[in-house]
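Page 42, continued from yesterday. The earlier attempt failed because a stray header line got pasted into the input along with the sequence. Redoing it now with the clean sequence only.
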Amino acid sequence: MRVFKRYRIHMGTFAWILHRLSGLGLIFYLLLHIWVIGHLSGGEKSFDGIMEFFGSSLFQFLEVGLVGVILYHLFNGLRIVLIDAGILVEKQKMLYVLAVIIWLATWFSFGAVMVMRYGMLGSA
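This time it went through. Structure tokens are written below.
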């Protein structure tokens, strides 16, 4: 008797999982942001210390990733709104592919600007 079935991951399942994970990532970021802002009540020295920690290259790199998560959640959410409104329901796969293309193009553009401003590309 088979208890576990093998499930095929369809594009819709993949979109659903990524949307939930991006939402969880945004909740984590929001909580972290509130925690950091809470350091303002500890005075200037406390806040400056935490901002110095989060100003490192690692966190600048993670910030580029955060922009990607925000943009994915945005564009996939817009796709979901269209489908929920009954617009292009029969074209769900095409809408998802379009959302991913727009997401990646936008993320690449924003990420390139951020990387140049941060000076991540080898300021030797």
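Notes: The chain has a mean pLDDT of 90.
Reminder to self: strip header lines before submitting.
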